Amino acid sequence: MRRIWLISLVFFGVACGEIERAELSVRPNQDDFASDVQPLLVSLGCSSPGGCHDLGLGNVLIKANASAADLELSFLSVKAQIDREQPEQSRIIQSVLAENPTTQHIPAACITQGGCAWQKLVAWIAWDGEGDPRPSDIVCDFSAEGCFR
User: Fold this and answer.
1) Other residues' Cβ atoms within 10 Å of the Cβ of residue 60
2) Of 54, 61, 82, 111, which has the fewest CB atoms closer than 10 Å, so is most exposed?
3) How many domains is the chain built from?
4) Which pLDDT tens digit goes with each residue over 16-30?
5) Nearest Cα to 146, choosing from 20, 45, 60?
């Protein structure tokens, strides 16, 4: 009898209440990571074969020609290095920023504040839905930027 009472309570509790649905944006966007951010990080030199992030050092894994599994691991490792409230202060940016005198990244000075790579990374981290620029909306050439140039 106790079981029937409990089931009735749950049923009526759900039936009488309203269910609200919240639409939450997924930040940062994993599709943008695959199409814009991963290629940017590879171009910067973050995935040099046998190099630091090709091996996952610094808790960041970046592989050129990544398999689906590697791409998922790359996304998760980079996502762990971001600050959604202050995108410009994200570790993934600050660690390679030329203007950061406290960086311990080797080599330092991979990107510059306001540069193409910086803009695309900030756009990816800050994107919160319709109306916000995505990395692909930032039209610029990051080929001259990088850790080994």
Assistant:
1) 18
2) 54
3) 1
4) 555 565 555 567 889
5) 45
Query: Which tens digits make up the pLDDT trace of 56-104?
Result: 777 888 888 889 999 999 999 999 999 999 999 999 999 899 898 888 8
Residue 145 lies in a domain: no
What's the pTM value of the predicted model, to 2 decimals?
0.79
Domain of residue 125, residue span = 25-137
**Lookup result for tokens 């030329």:** 98
Nearest to 79 by CA among 121, 24, 130: 121
CB 61 within 8 A of CB 74: yes
Residue 6, in any domain of the structure: no
Structure tokens at 85: 């409230």
